[in-house]
Amino acid sequence: MNANKNIIIIGGGITGLSAAHRLSELAVKNGYALDITLIEARNRLGGVIHTVKQDGFLIDSGPDNFVTIKPWAMALVRRLGLESELITTNEAHRSAMVVRNGKLLPIPEGFLLMAPTKVMPVLTSPVFSVLGKLRMGMELFIPGKKNNKDESLASFVIRRFGREALDRVVQPLISGIYTARPENLSLRATMPRFLDLEAKYGSIIRGMRSEGKNRKTTESGARYGMFVTLKEGLQTLISALEDRLGHISFRLNTHVAEVRKGLKDRSQSWTVKLDDGTSMETDGIIITGPSKHAASLVRGIDPNLADQLSAVQYASSAVVHLAYKRDQIAHPLDAFGCVVPITERRNIIAASFSSIKYDGRAPDGSVLLRAFMGGALQPDMPMRDDKDLVAAARFDLDNFLGISTAPQFTLISRWPDSMAQYKVGHLGQIKMMREQLGKHQGLQLAGNGFEGVGIPDCVRAGESAAEDLAKDLG
Ligand SMILES: Cc1cc2nc3c(=O)[nH]c(=O)nc-3n(C[C@H](O)[C@H](O)[C@H](O)COP(=O)(O)OP(=O)(O)OC[C@H]3O[C@@H](n4cnc5c(N)ncnc54)[C@H](O)[C@@H]3O)c2cc1C
Predict the structure, then answer these.
(1) Is the shortest distance between the CB of 317 and ligand 1 below 6 Å?
(2) Where is average pLDDT lowest: 146-150, 156-160, 209-213, 450-454?
(3) What is the reported pLDDT for 210?
(4) Distance 13 CA to ligand 1 centre (A)
(5) Which atom of ligand 1 is nearest to the CA of 15?
(6) 127, 100 in Cβ contact below 8 A?
(7) 448 C-alpha to center of ligand 1: Å?
(8) CATH topology for the 109-215 domain
(9) Which ranges of 2-111 would DSSP assign to H, the alpha helix?
(10) What per-residue string of b and e applies to 112-133 under the rule 16 or more CB within 10 Å gives b?
(11) Would you say the CB of residue 233 lies under 6 angstroms from ligand 1?
(12) What is the mean pLDDT of the chain?
């Protein structure tokens, strides 16, 4: 690569920052110089990652942790020298509860996302009816699907475990992660492991028990032992990236309006038009962030690509954080949080007991709760005004947790159009989108709209886009 190449990255979330970091690593490794400019519309970096400190509470107002089983975020943390900042979920209470008829009940021990791995806890659980339990047990005898076609979460769970398992536990657990409508959510694009277990073992229960033989889990809900965060919040990761990228140019408060093929007389170049009417010339571009935003940027150069990008739909969410003194809450808080089936018709879709899950989130004698609202099943909820949102969150939490007094303070974060909804057939659409993108040398796209929505996926997406762009530019 020539010494004078310049690159523009659009979007300063974890994807854009990971792309900038990887480009810088490649430049050092291969001994060339790059001029990198990262353009961000907000007045801060991090995108949906944002840590707030208030009255001794530490609040991650968007994502609050990431999984270690997908290695890319952990690898980045190590390269940034942040390993000593990592903390794991507390060992006590690694479980979740579910709302059933307005009451909080424990999700049976060993019930992980979609499938029970232990018999007794399910048999003795009041969450399911006798018929529902029998139907779940029949999963062991239902032959595996013959074809490898994508399937919705709802169709898969009903086929293998029955409607009750879907409605009472799986829908709310998965909604807490993907905020999606189960009838639409692609299993192949989100949790392919379950399809693979079916193909390999003929039964999910048999597969999970066989693969987890040596793991003595008392967890329920998610495998909480696989989650980590950073002591001072996820903002630490963003600040470390910003420090490491001291040599690149950050343009905050700058909104990109459009991307065009460039005017330079060199072989290939691009023009980035800003909202203020000015433009910048560049050799290569990485557009990050929600793909529906990327769609509007590339429409002028490739309407087909834009259509493919805007086919990935997004849902909005709101998180209400509530700070309490411990003695304001009657419930023992002996779990990491609760999920709420849509059939319960409540205001919130899930709540996280943040200071039970991780140390250092609330001062001694206090508790930090997070209530999640919105997603594909409650599209209007995040649009409500602040007063309404807090009242709606408080109504449910007061009911579930026996709270009768007002929180010390609340903090609301809204994340419009931030959660990508991977519909059945998503991976096939993304393959076609990538083929179309291949026609534009020097243009790369990355973000949570394509091959994974979690932080590790976004790190990988940003880094892959950087590597592909480096190849593009020779
Ligand atoms: C509430 C919430 C909770 C979550 N919880 C978790 C979790 O616990 N663990 C986990 O792994 N994942 C979680 N996720 C998912 C994960 O955090 C996101 O998918 C990921 O952080 C997205 O990063 P990104 O950089 O692709 O996009 P973003 O963070 O959205 O960043 C994109 C950036 O691009 C900027 N931008 C967009 N268009 C333009 C433009 N035209 N010009 C200039 N700038 C532009 C935006 O301002 C934004 O800052 C959560 C997501 C949300 C919303």
Answers:
(1) yes
(2) 209-213
(3) 87
(4) 6
(5) 25
(6) yes
(7) 7
(8) protoporphyrinogen ix oxidase, domain 3 (1.10.3110)
(9) 14-30, 72-79
(10) bbbbbbbeebbeebebbeeebb
(11) no
(12) 94
Domain residue ranges of the chain, discontinuous segments joined by + = 6-47+233-312+423-472, 65-92+314-420, 109-215
Residue 166 has pLDDT above 80, yes or no: yes
| pLDDT tens, residue by residue, 370-418 | 999 999 999 999 999 999 999 999 999 999 999 999 999 999 999 999 9
Q: State if residue 48 touches ligand 1 by the CB under 6 angstroms criterion.
A: yes
Q: Does domain 65-92+314-420 have CATH number 3.90.660.20?
A: yes
Q: Given ligand 1 and candidates 418, 421, 460, which is best to mutate, with the most ligand atoms within 8 Å of its CB?
A: 418
Pairing of strands 284-287, 6-10: parallel
What ligand 1 atom has the least distance to the C-alpha of 64? 8
Q: What predicted TM-score, i.e. pTM, was given to this entire model?
A: 0.95
Q: What angle do CA 218, 219, 225 make, to 5 degrees?
A: 110
- Protein residue whose Cα sits closest to atom 34 of ligand 1: 11
List the structure tokens of 392: 């709606």
What atom in ligand 1 is closest to the CA of residue 413? 1
Q: Work out whether the CA dihedral 164, 168, 171, 174 comes out positive or negative.
A: negative
For the domain covering 6-47+233-312+423-472, report its CATH number.
Answer: 3.50.50.60
- pLDDT (tens digit per residue) in 321-376: 999 999 999 999 999 999 999 999 999 999 999 999 999 999 999 999 999 999 99
